[in-house]
Please model this.
Amino acid sequence: MAVDVVTTPQGPVELEIAGTRKENHPWEIQVVKHPKREESSHFRAAKKTAKKILGEIAADGDELPYGAGPWEMHHGGSLWVRADSGWRMYRARVGIEWSAQFCADPAKVDRLRREAAELVEAFPLTLDALDALGYKRARALLTTPVTDAESVEAWTDSLFNACVPLSRANHSGVLPKAAGEHHYPWPIKAADYFRYDDFQLWVTLPDGTNAGVTPVGRRGSGDGQVRIVHARHGTPAGDALAEAQRRRMMAVVPPDSPIALAAFEQQIPRGAKTASGPLRARRRRSPDGDRGTTAR
Model:
């Protein structure tokens, strides 16, 4: 395997080159082994605190932000606050991914700091609670202006940016296995956290690529059409979606298409030829142990 050497602020680093991607156009991407990434003290402290917070949430029986662990901490704009009823996490206007800090304008990052400080001020229990958990740097982070690369790093790896607790699949997964936040548009990916469990947001298309789809009508309307809201550029579905957007229209597939049948598979009778019609009655167990039926 070929080895290349690049210079980093920490000195020369050897990179193992796993392969090269080329086309006829003059571009080239090297797929390389990631240099060993040393976690900053800011990130270690933030992760340790976030895990303590998540432990308290679980012990209180509250709902975790994005489900049970094991978690990977996503640099997604994690604004943790302590409310009267317990810990809560809000999302910042934007999150700063670790690698994106190197193009971050300190003045723009400072706006994120000020907005976070305003939110924390509205939850006066927060700072004392963080002190109790050992995260005593919170006050300085919220009150110190971001002016240079060092303070950008401190904010990027802080509890107020770097600790959105996601499973590995939700963090960096790739379809058809999972749609990770790093690879799929947030307006579409976000639906994974609030959709009905029996609706398939991500479907495999006839050409083997994947698309994000949403229903056209309300649940129970009987409308089995679905709208394509995300598809890979350069594919038939992606081209149709782009054309629809140019015309300010929707890219909709009919209820008898494989796409609609896949999206509504758990809501329609087995073997159905159309996704339109009433919701399938599903068996459920009542609180007293008897079985009944319910429409879902």
Q: What stands out?
A: Residues 41-166 form one domain.
